[in-house]
């Protein structure tokens, strides 16, 4: 989704804004622009369609735009095609207000009609131009300055927005405005930054303010003042970011995705360490930081997990694990569907929302719906201070660190680890698993980082396979039970970054239609880690082979017999069957990655996709 940056300080703003935007490239975009101001001179604006490098060239790395305050934007088109006119910043007719925006103004057509009646003209198809001109309209109508104009505009606008604004009458300040879209403010001596996400400002400061919903802020060099919708000044405490600046760099890897794949053992270990404690003679899972009590867990009658994309796949895996270990009925819902249903929730239920960014619009809406029904909520979130983390009753933080590649890897793995810990804990406090089994599962959990590391060490074989199958058009991923949920993730990794059509099927369902698509040479990737289901999935694979399918198996090292059936085998270390998705995902991530590289694609920034989907 769109990325916003802003700067007020003593340095050249344009260079800082371009660098900030480059750190937000992972969000996905199709055009970019800057607005910079030098003292009381006019605001200069530069916009380009396409990659950020074009804006960089056009402004000679920012040199053609001198000035110490400014705002910048990468756009992911919602209203109006990607074009220079539709790119942000947008400017009011006489240049009084300049603005950038992330989100969707749902009633923009109604507001646009009103402004046209008042004599305004529009040069773009965007809702953002309408928002900027609404601010201009109220500024001129009441003559009470930016606070009043912004607050009145916020009252009129429906939808979601994070905005950066500049007023030509106020040369030393920029404004940050927020409702339901992410926006943070970073402050250090003599400099203030705004950004859609932490990596854009991590290099400069770790002191960050999370601006609340329906709040806005005046930003001056080294200072920030917050206001509520009534224009009253409010106080917000800063948060110290713990991520290191290096964490948002490639660190010698060709792509962020590969770096993040390799960070999984560490990220899973950190996440588990944060949840597993030891006293003198035993280990135990400590969820006290989340505020979720044993009593609540004991009284649960049902859990609903809501999420989008890969986080939904985590929910699918967790469903099997929680139901088996804790005997609590679990439903898993796509957040975009859940939010428009009339779910039966309430006392005795827990809604878990899983989200790396903590800002996904549908997941946030699902959380709010759950809260409205009076149901207790738990957010499993990676980004500290994000909207879901702030609004959920309880928060379980994954410790993946910043994830930059659009296709998630380490966040997915840490989410799985967090949900496993929850399942084991629930099984124990509800008396479904004995103390001995509890200790066994804790041991097995702590072996996962090493198992992931071992799975990583086999990447050359996968690279070769990808190079040999670069022309593949369709791939099928199959599995049963937890292996099916892992197949869902493997298939998503394949299609989202390599653009190869792929589908994941529950192996037993294949015969109900999909098998007719298997042709000579079609790769069928079977995941086989569940001891009771191994032979059944293998039979389904053999059925595909009989129709020309090329069989790839992802299975545990003890299953050497598979070499008699599969054309290509990826062995993984054996772990407790509940937790295998953490390991089976690794070769599948690598497969998607190498397929994308073999096809010469932009692994970290796949076409049309955005990392953080902050609109519906
Ligand atoms: C996007 C990303 C996915 C992610 C999904 C949910 O589609 O590309 O990798 O799984 O959003 O994001 P969240 O931040 O809520 O986990």
Describe the structure.
There is one protein chain. The protein is α/β, with parallel strands linked by helices and 616 residues long. The protein has 3 domains: 3-248, Glutamine Phosphoribosylpyrophosphate, subunit 1, domain 1 (4-Layer Sandwich), CATH 3.60.20.10; 256-455, Rossmann fold (3-Layer(aba) Sandwich); 459-598, Glucose-6-phosphate isomerase like protein, domain 1 (Rossmann fold), CATH 3.40.50.10490. The chain contains 18 helices and 27 strands. The strands form 5 sheets. It has an 8-stranded antiparallel sheet with strand order 3-2-4-1-10-9-11-15, with helices on one face. The protein has a 7-stranded antiparallel sheet with strand order 5-6-7-8-12-13-14, with helices on one face. A 5-stranded parallel sheet has the order 19-18-20-21-22, sandwiched between helices. Helix 13 (410-429) packs antiparallel against helix 14 (435-456) and helix 16 (482-498) runs parallel beside helix 18. It is globular. It starts with a strand and ends in an 18-residue tail after the last helix. The model has no long low-confidence stretch (mean pLDDT 94). 6-O-phosphono-alpha-D-glucopyranose (G6P) is lined by residues 308-311, 355-357, 360, 363, 406-408, 609, 611-613.
Fold blueprint:
Elements: E1 3-8, H1 13-23, E2 31-37, E3 43-49, H2 52-58, E4 69-75, E5 90-91, E6 97-105, H3 108-117, H4 127-142, H5 146-156, E7 159-167, E8 174-179, E9 184-188, E10 191-195, E11 207-210, E12 215-220, E13 223-227, E14 233-234, E15 239-240, H6 256-262, H7 264-275, E16 276-278, E17 283-285, H8 294-299, E18 302-307, H9 309-326, E19 330-334, H10 335-338, E20 349-355, H11 361-372, E21 376-381, H12 387-391, E22 394-397, H13 410-429, H14 435-456, H15 459-468, E23 474-479, H16 482-498, E24 501-506, E25 523-528, H17 534-545, E26 550-556, E27 568-572, H18 581-598
Parallel strand pairs: 18-19, 18-20, 20-21, 21-22, 23-24, 23-25, 25-26, 26-27
Antiparallel strand pairs: 1-4, 1-10, 2-3, 2-4, 5-6, 6-7, 7-8, 8-12, 9-10, 9-11, 11-15, 12-13, 13-14, 16-17
Helix pairs in contact: 3-4, 4-5, 7-13, 7-14, 9-13, 9-16, 13-14, 14-18, 15-18, 16-18
The chain binds 6-O-phosphono-alpha-D-glucopyranose (G6P).
